[in-house]
Amino acid sequence: MRRCKLRIAIGWGLLLGCLAITPLEADEPAWPHPVHHPESPLMLAGDWLPADPHRIDFSKLPRVPSEHVVVNNAEPEMGVNQHNYLARYGGKFWLMWSDGPGVEDRVGQRVKFATSEDGLTWTEPRFLTPEPPHSGPASAHYGKRSDQGSRYISRGFWQRHSELYALASLDEAAGFFGPSLELHAFRVQLSDQTWEDMGVIADDSINNFPPKQLASGQWMMSRRSHDYKTTGVQFLIGGDHAIDQWESFPVFGTASELSAEEPLWWQLPDGNLVALFRDNHRSKFIYRAFSSDQGRSWSPPVRTNFPDATSKMHGLRLLDGRYVLVSNSNPSKRDPLTIAISQDGMVFDKLAFLVGGRQVDYPHVMEHDGRLLIAFSSNKRTVEVLSIRLADLDPLEMSH
Predict the structure, then answer these.
(1) Domain tally for the chain?
(2) What is the per-residue pLDDT across 18-29, written as a single tens digit (0 to 9) for each?
(3) Buried b vs exposed e over 244-255: b needs ≥16 C-beta within 10 Å?
(4) How far is 151 from 113, CA to CA, in rounded Å?
(5) Which one of 115, 207, 325, 386 counts the least CB within 10 Å of its CB?
(6) Percent of the chain, pLDDT > 70?
(7) What is the dihedral of CA 21, 24, 30, 32, to 10 degrees?
C-alpha cells in the first residue's frame, strides 16, 4: 500500500498570543476583519436578534419551502446512517454516508453511496468501501466499540481535475481516534460505478470535508490526528502534484481554550480565509479564525455570538456571492436544522428554519442549477435530502 508524504509546519509568528481567546463582549463589537479585527465575536446580527442569541425563538423563524426524500433508513436493522456528503459528477448527483451496526462508528462500519439524476430520486444504495480488515459481520467484535476491530468513516467526495475520489478514514473502533488512523481515497469507475482503492493519502489524519482548491492551485482540507484532543486541529495543504503529498499547518489554541471539532472553511471575497469550529467544551457557540496567508497560519480562534448545539455544520459561497451556513443553531438540542445567510461570509443577518420536530444533524450542502441540495441524518438512522430553490431564500423576512 502506498504511504502518504506528510510534513508538519509550525507558524512561529502566530505562536505569540495564540492562547488569548476573546470572550463575547458586552459592548457592540467591531465588524470582523481578517487582518484588522480578527478578534471580533460578531457573526450573527440584525434587529430581530435578542441580546442573548441563546434566547432566539426557533419556532418563529421564517420557514423555507422544500422538497424532501429519505434515501436510506437503517432503523429496521438498528444501524447507523450519518456523515453525509454530496457531489455532482458525470451528469449525476452522488451521495455517500457512513453505514454500520449499532449506534455510531462501531466495528464493521462501512461507507455506502447512491446516485440520482434529479437529487430526489435515488438509486438503491451500494457499498463503496470493502469490509474493514477482520471486522465483518463474522467478526467477534462486529458492532462493538473495540480496538480489536476497525471501521470506515465517510469523509466526502473530492473532484480532482477530471476524476472523482471518495475519501474515507480507517482506524480502530474503540474511540475517536485510533493510533492506526489513516485517510484513504477511492476512485470511481463511471462505467459500472465501482470504486478502486487508491491507498492511503494522509497518515494519522481524518478530514472533516473534502479538499477545496486555493488560489495557488493547491488543495486544502482540515486534519485531526488520533491525538487531536491534545494537539489541536490542523490544515493540510497540497494534493496538487500527487494525492498523497500534503503539508500540515496547526491552528494554535484549538485544544486549549476550546475543544475544536469538525472544522469548516471557505474563502472570503478579498481572498482571505475563514474557519469555523464546533466547540466540544460546550460553550454552545461557534468559534472562528482567519488566515491571510492561504491557510498557513491562523488568528487565535474567537468565540462568536452564533449559537450552536455542539454539532456539525456545513456551508458554502453561492454563485451569486452570498454565503449560506446550515447548522443546528438551537443551543439546547439538534432540532431544528437552520440556514443562515451572509453577504460577506463573516456576519449573517438572516436565519431560517429548514426541517425539525426531531433530531436532525450532519448536514452537507451543494448548489446546482438554482437549487440547494441539503443532505442530513435523522436520529443517526436515516439519510435524507432536502431540495430548496435559491429564489425562496430571497423573500425571507426576519420578525422582531
Answers:
(1) 1
(2) 333 344 444 678
(3) bbbbbbbbbbbb
(4) 16
(5) 115
(6) 93
(7) 50
CA–CA separation, 392 and 237 (whole Å): 36
Evaluate if pTM is beyond 0.90. Answer: yes
Residue 97 included in any domain: yes
In a domain, 377, yes or no: no
Q: Cell triple for residue 230?
A: 491534545
- Assigned domain for 373 exists: no
* Mode of pairing for the β-strands spanning 5-8 and 245-250: parallel
Determine, yes or no, domain membership for 297. Answer: no
Residue range of the domain that includes 167: 79-208
- CA-nearest of 102, 143, 95 to 116 is 95
Residues 336/64/362/116 CA torsion (nearest 10 deg): 150
The answer on pLDDT for 315 being more than 80 is yes
pLDDT at position 270 over 70: yes
The CATH number that applies at residue 135 is: 2.115.10.20
pLDDT tens per residue, range 116-135:
999 999 999 999 999 999 99
